[in-house]
Design goal:
alpha+beta, YdfO-like fold, about 35% helix, 6-stranded antiparallel β-sheet, 4 helices, 6 strands
Length: about 130
């Protein structure tokens, strides 16, 4: 894994200068298998194909995470970011308000799973352009 590329993807995402499909492509190209975004601890863990691990702090201010997971709000938020209606930071704020405590993106598995505090979850499948 190339840590500089991972950091670049995080920084560009928070700045609203890169899309999710672009992030997935860049991370896939450097051998990233998956990553987890912990919204409680505001950190991101990236995992490589050869069991490498990189963690970094996420620098954004967000709302308190709702106690109840609202699946429909998470789905609506995902749709809005996919359509370019909101930024990544707004996406994070809205899924936190919808009760998402963390999410994991499985690059090779082409899916993201959003989790609530009680284990509630929503699975979102995505296409990966290579």
């Amino acid at each position: 894994m190339n840590i500089a590329v991972i950091k670049e993807c995080t920084d560009l995402s928070l700045a609203g200068k890169i899309t999710f499909p672009e992030v997935v492509k860049k991370l896939s190209d450097i051998g990233t298998e998956r990553y987890t975004v912990d919204l409680v601890g505001k950190c991101k863990y990236s995992y490589g194909l050869n069991d490498e691990v990189h963690n970094e702090t996420l620098t954004f201010e967000g709302p308190q995470i709702a106690k109840v997971f609202d699946t429909q709000s998470v789905k609506d938020t995902i749709a809005d970011i996919q359509q370019g209606k909101i930024s990544y930071v707004e996406f994070l704020h809205r899924i936190m308000e919808a009760g998402c405590s963390h999410y994991e993106v499985f690059i090779r598995g082409k899916q993201a799973i959003y989790f609530g505090r009680d284990g509630s979850q929503h699975v979102e499948r995505f296409l990966q352009n290579k």
